[in-house]
User: Which sequence fits this backbone?
């Protein structure tokens, strides 16, 4: 499977026209930030100077990843003990309000030195000036290793590189096989109607024991929908965040169709009570305890149930259901381009890069894949990494129905977001068509303004094929 994934990933990325190098031509092999680049540290002590004076360089690393935190803690402890330059990294693991916390930190001059970056937050962080370009640190060896994975509007903006790839995430339906058997369900649902029916059957069979058919982390509607509806739509032939790649405009009509099925599960009382305020870790704890029949999430989950919430339940991952049970697109591989970035406000950018360089080492990236924390996308790592030896990971490995999709514009509309508007409809009802039309108006208005300001570029692709989203 891993060799097949190598060929798949390379063909997709080459087909997408990904350039081989995003450097600025100023290769600083000493590890210092390129002179004149935004965020370059000009007055801070270097790591080598700290080693001479005995004063440690203190770095703060913020992440919203919790599935891999024990492994990351081990890596940081090892780095702190062995880097030889008196650099000490402190890890802070945030919750679902990560982006808001980062905003507050930068506004109050308490920003971390290193940030966990994802495709969903990197464009906004770059736009706000939070990140320092790393072009000046990219040696020829690094460019060869990561060059095919430098993607415009993902980790490279206006010709400057801000992060490097590590893994990609597949999205799947996670289901409890024992609860499916108890409810007389032979296979995971392939259509949304089947998902609604199965959730109801599981609830009816297990409600007396506090078991419910479905749940999501609705404390953050966007987090919940982006790990579920996004994948349902991409497999159904639509871009999963409400953008129509053929027209270059937002169209939330398909999104509203999926919401109707979520609303039906809520009305059926097939969703775990209290899910409206449920965060992802409490959800995982309930699933590990055998109280949830199914939910949708990322390929991080196998690692969660091995280390964070060890469980004895019989569970697996399967492709997400589609609108009508027919696969008309590919399941989107997400976050396949970014991992770590350096704060533009860090006084220790050289030391931050040394930590990044350590984290991007072959052994660490290979082990990250093999432990099941993410699926490797760096070609040289894919070649040498073994299949993850972790329960449940087989259901998340990249197959014929998985691929990369083009990046879509990230805009902020006036008024409520699509996630908040649809979540309110799911709970309280209303006119779904009117909600979708209103979202279209407000999002496309925001898109037009962003295009006029030069913040985003949009190129409609009338020939876009959701079965071949990168045109291969």
Assistant:
């Amino acid at each position: 499977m891993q060799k097949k994934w190598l060929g798949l990933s390379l063909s997709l990325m080459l087909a997408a026209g990904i350039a081989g190098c995003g450097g600025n031509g100023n290769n600083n092999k000493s590890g210092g930030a390129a002179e004149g680049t935004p965020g370059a540290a000009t007055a801070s002590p270097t790591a080598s100077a700290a080693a001479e004076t005995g004063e440690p360089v203190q770095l703060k690393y913020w992440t919203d990843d919790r599935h891999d935190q024990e492994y990351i803690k081990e890596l940081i402890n090892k780095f702190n003990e062995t880097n030889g330059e008196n650099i000490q990294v402190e890890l802070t693991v945030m919750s679902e309000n990560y982006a808001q916390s980062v905003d507050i930190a930068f506004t109050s001059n308490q920003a971390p030195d290193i940030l966990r970056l994802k495709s969903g937050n990197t464009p906004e962080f770059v736009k706000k000036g939070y990140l320092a370009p790393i072009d000046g640190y990219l040696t020829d060896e690094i460019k060869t290793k990561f060059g095919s994975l430098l993607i415009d509007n993902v980790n490279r903006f206006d010709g400057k590189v801000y992060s490097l790839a590590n893994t990609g995430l597949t999205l799947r339906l996670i289901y409890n096989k024992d609860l499916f058997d108890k409810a007389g369900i032979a296979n995971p649902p392939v259509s949304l109607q089947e998902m609604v029916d199965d959730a109801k059957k599981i609830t009816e069979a297990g409600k007396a024991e506090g078991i419910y058919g479905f749940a999501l982390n609705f404390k953050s509607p966007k987090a919940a929908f982006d790990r579920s509806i996004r994948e349902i739509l991409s497999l159904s032939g639509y871009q999963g965040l409400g953008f129509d790649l053929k027209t270059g405009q937002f169209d939330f009509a398909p999104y509203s169709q999926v919401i109707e099925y979520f609303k039906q599960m809520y009305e059926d009382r097939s969703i775990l009570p209290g899910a409206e305020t449920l965060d992802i870790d409490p959800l995982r704890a309930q699933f590990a305890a055998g109280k949830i029949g199914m939910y949708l999430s990322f390929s991080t989950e196998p690692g969660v149930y091995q280390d964070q919430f060890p469980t004895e339940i019989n569970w697996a991952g399967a492709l997400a259901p589609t609108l009508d049970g027919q696969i008309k697109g590919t399941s989107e591989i997400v976050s396949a381009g970014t991992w770590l970035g350096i704060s533009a406000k860090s006084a220790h950018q050289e030391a931050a890069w040394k930590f990044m360089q350590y984290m991007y080492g072959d052994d660490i990236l290979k082990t990250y894949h093999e432990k099941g924390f993410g699926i490797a996308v760096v070609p040289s790592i894919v070649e040498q990494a073994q299949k993850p030896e972790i329960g449940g990971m087989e259901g998340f490995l990249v197959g014929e129905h998985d691929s990369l999709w083009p990046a879509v514009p990230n805009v902020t509309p006036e008024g409520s977001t699509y996630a908040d508007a649809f979540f309110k409809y799911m709970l309280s009802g209303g006119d779904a068509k009117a909600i979708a039309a209103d979202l279209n108006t407000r999002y496309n208005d925001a898109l037009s303004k962003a295009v006029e300001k030069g913040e985003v570029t949009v190129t409609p692709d009338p020939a876009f094929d959701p079965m071949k989203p990168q045109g291969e």
